[in-house]
Amino acid sequence: MKHIDVKVLFENAEKYLNQSVTVCGWVRTWRDSKSIAFIELNDGTSLKNLQLIIEKDKIDESAYKPALVVGCALQVAGTFIPSERNGYELLLQSVTVLGGCPQDYPLQKKHHTLEFLRSIPHLRPRTKYFEAVFAVRNALSFAIHKYFNKHGYKYVHTPIITGSDCEGAGEMFRVTTHNWNDKYEKEQDYYADDFFGARAALTVSGQLEGEMAAMGLGKIYTFGPTFRAEHSNTTRHAAEFWHIEPEVCFCDLQDIIGIAEDFIKSIIKDVVATCPDEISYFNERVEKGLIEKLNKVTECEFGKITYTEAVEVLKKSGKQFKYPVEWGADLQTEHEKYLTEEYFKKPVFVTDYPADIKSFYMKQNPDGKTVAATDLLVPGIGEIIGCSEREADLEKLTAAMRKRNMPLDGYTEYIDTRKYGSVPHSGFGLGFERMLMYVTGVQNIRDTLLFPRTVGSL
Ligand code: 4AD
Ligand code: MG
Asked: d(Cα 9, Cα 23) in Å, to the nearest integer?
């Protein structure tokens, strides 16, 4: 269909001024008087609507009348002219209704609650809020690829179906084509008859395969969906989320912290520069002060504190926490929020967590109690990055796996990387939706995904 994107029209207004153009889109609102009608048209390419003017005596009523319906899809031709109120508008010569829209169209009002919009995920991309979310989502993904590409990382695609549990939390969705039936006495026999001849699941992380790739390619990153069967019904947990996981050889914990900080700042700067309309919209409508926050983040030095020091800070805070603060216990959201929002008032890396609350692959510190791991906490969200130097020593790694009762024979290839030319290496995982929440101010992870998958909701 010959037509022009509204975004192209606005960005090249001088070129198209007083020209006749064809545009397509959906009617967001309309109003009319006796002789004239105004339609706000949106085609999804620009947050800004294009105002259409219909001079009723110039167009046959049977063409313009069906167009005066919220939600209906139009193809229109007209002259692109300057307008005092809107900058530019389109004075129509012809209207074609591509798709009519009956009165039960749910998006009749200008503003709907986010809860309501969550009940119609198939229609919410037609609202300004979600147009802005998905524009920034797109720009943020692109910014991430640009960053790694510029710095010489190879983008690798790790498997989605896997037999290993990277995080060891037992939060994996099973993949099977095989109904359980009681002819099997042992679980192993049942799995042996399944599609892969073994127990299979959706990956929680591409890290283990990423490490194997990095051990030959030097620097890699993954960017793909990962899956967690966590029963956490919160605003920050999704059962299916997108995960960015760089892995870097010849790199220790301090090096990877430096990379993570530079990466976060760079992608924020990129999105602020490429999505000015969307970021201004979020600044006005979603999080007051968003632009100032983002600018500060790109300029400040992120905080750093060890887990042990953080426990002291929390104990001395005088705050009444719901969960007690004890050395050895994992930090809860309330503790993370206090550290990043009240104590540091900026992003902070908490380092050197107790080994017992972290994963098997993390480098064991000389103290015998902690590991060279860090979480990056940010105000408003909490953890957005989980990061560590990896245990490169074969004996120490296998000892940590045995301690956790892991089946070593299921991880032969991973263990081989420590046997054959092992090197110091580090990596991290950034939750893409949490990062998107941080740059937009969106409060609920369900509003960052096209079709969110969360516990109890498919
Ligand atoms: O801290 P996590 O579990 O770390 C890993 O998976 C490591 N293998 C990463 C690595 O070193 N390569 O997860 C990393 C990040 C978290 O910090 C969080 O931002 C995000 O993934 N995340 C989730 N995001 C949305 N919903 C969930 N259920 C998430 N679980 C983790
Ligand atoms: Mg984590």
From this structure: 9
CA of 430 to the centre of ligand 1 (A): 6
| Cβ–Cβ < 8 Å for 88, 80 | yes
Q: Percent of the chain beyond pLDDT 90?
A: 91
pLDDT classification of 85: cutoffs 50, 70, 90: confident
| Mean pLDDT on 216-231 | 97
Residue type, 220: I
Q: Which residues are near ligand 1 (CB < 6 Å)?
A: 166-167, 205, 207, 228, 230, 237-238, 241, 243, 245, 383-388, 427-429, 431, 433-434
* Helices marked H in 390-431: 394-403, 412-419
CB under 8 Å to 414, separation ≥6 — which residues? 164, 208, 211, 212
DSSP letter for 173, please: P
Give the ligand whose atoms come closest to the C-alpha of residue 330: 2
Which residue(s) pair with 246 in the sheet? 221
User: Which pLDDT belongs to residue 49?
Assistant: 96
**161 token code pair:** 């179906």
